[in-house]
Amino acid sequence: MRIALVHEFLTQLGGAERVLENFLEIWPNAMVHVLIYDEKKTHGKFEQYQKRLSFLNNWPLARTHYKLLLPFMTQAIESFKFDDFDLVISDSSAFAKGIKTDKLHICYCHTPTRYLWTEAKSYLKAMPYPFFLKWAGSSVLPYLRRWDYKAAQRVNFFVANSENVRKRIGKYYQRDSVVIPPPVDNEFFRPVSEKKDYFFTASRLEPYKKMEIVVGAFNVSGLKLKIAGTGSKLAALKKLAKSNIEFLGRISDDELRRRYSEAQAFIFPAEEDAGIMILEANACGTPVIAYRAGGALESVIEGKTGEFFKEQSVEAIKTVVRNFDAKKYNAETIRQQAQQYDKKIFQKKIKEFVEEKYAHRT
């Protein structure tokens, strides 16, 4: 069976890239089709695999300001050809589901495109570009919304990464889907260090990640916080932060595991679709303090693997962290939650789903 994989942007390492890595562990000979690829920013993790890159990859703005290329993304994803494959598997949060093919197409959906259906205004507001570029962006969104809906109808079968996303696939695309949660590497993510007296968070430092309220809460509380990640808000957050807050920048997986292990708790302020970092922290025996919304509702067991705050505000986070008692949590109980999402379980479910659908197609 000749398999093609489709991924939008290999320009960072996040939850979507962990899913792609797992696909490639199942099907190492698959050809990865990707709109834009940056080997340096993905630390060479995908260097060994076969890749086909879109025409956008050679454009001057591709690696630095790819959001400006939004009007061309639909054409780029539709330009890929799959005549020499038997099956296509996309993992999509925007464009990857929009390929055109008569081959069986299964889409692992991280989310219906957020900036088209749920966060258009906040997305445009947060773009670090002049007003006229934001205006141009707003004018193209209605076209992209129509395209996105039509693109979703091309998919033969949807797999959602959470119940939360399954509902939104139904709401915005009128399509059914099954839920297979994203994978956690429990062999790698495990307790490796003794607990220390700080809290930890890791994220792309972009407006929608809500990191400014975490910084604000720890400014007020005076408790120690370490933040991993980079992004457009880094300079502003550093300017806002007091001396009890340390910025670690981009860190390796080894350091990420150590920070998870040492932290009193992992702070998760955004409304995410699944929240794989919640489970990675749990795999390291660390409880999570999360916003009570989205995928966190499916992965955090209140009082056993973590705690919630009710609103995305400085006051809400400050109250929870000040009252937080790490001693009431049992590391082994927390790890058991993460083990339910182990990568071996994910790979088995995905492989069985794909093989079943392919067998019925042929």
From TrEMBL:
Top-level taxonomic group: Bacteria
Q: Residue ranges of the Glycosyltransferase subfamily 4-like N-terminal domain?
A: 14-187
Q: Name one GO molecular function term.
A: glycosyltransferase activity
Please report the stretch or stretches of sequence annotated as the Glycosyl transferase family domain: 191-338
Kindly give the InterPro entries that the UniProt entry links to this protein: Glyco_trans_1, Glyco_trans_4-like_N, Glycosyltransferase_grp1
Q: Where do the TM regions start and end?
A: none
The cross-references to SUPFAM superfamilies, in alphabetical order and at most eight, read: UDP-Glycosyltransferase/glycogen phosphorylase (SSF53756)
Residues in a coiled coil are none
Name of the protein: Uncharacterized protein
Organism source for this protein?
A: Candidatus Doudnabacteria bacterium RIFCSPLOWO2_01_FULL_44_21
